[in-house]
Amino acid sequence: QVQLVESGGGLVQPGGSLRLSCAASGFTFRAYAMSWARQAPGKGLEWVSTISSDGATTYYVDSVKGRFTISRDNAKNTLYLQMNSLKPEDAAVYYCAKNPDNSRGQGTQVTVSS
User: Fold this and answer.
1) Three-state SS string across the chain, please?
2) What would the pLDDT profile of 98-111 be if each residue is shown by its tens digit?
3) Of the chain's two ends, which shows fewer C-beta atoms within 10 Å, N or C?
């Protein structure tokens, strides 16, 4: 079955950077678009970014454009999210998700605080 395991979260100061990873298994990773979503305390799930199956096309929510970069390594079945210039409002649990069914992992916590 589909397994998605996120890692790389942690505590970072405003302006700092983190790189999230998502290890995928149980499906043909290279055949599917993948996404990152996040959920802040007390808020709903927010879509953050999507990458096409071949990595050629990417999409971002406006609030992270120019700061976050989604990428993938189909040889390693791994999805990434490079997050730079982090802001307190970026703090959330981040999930990777398989499109289009939106299967997702357990998430990784990102805390942005001084």
Assistant:
1) CCEEEEECCEEECCCCCEEEEEEEECCCHHHCCEEEEEECCCCCEEEEEEECCCCCCEEECHHHCCCEEEEEECCCCEEEEEECCCCHHHCEEEEEEECCCCEECCCEEEEECC
2) 999 889 999 999 99
3) N
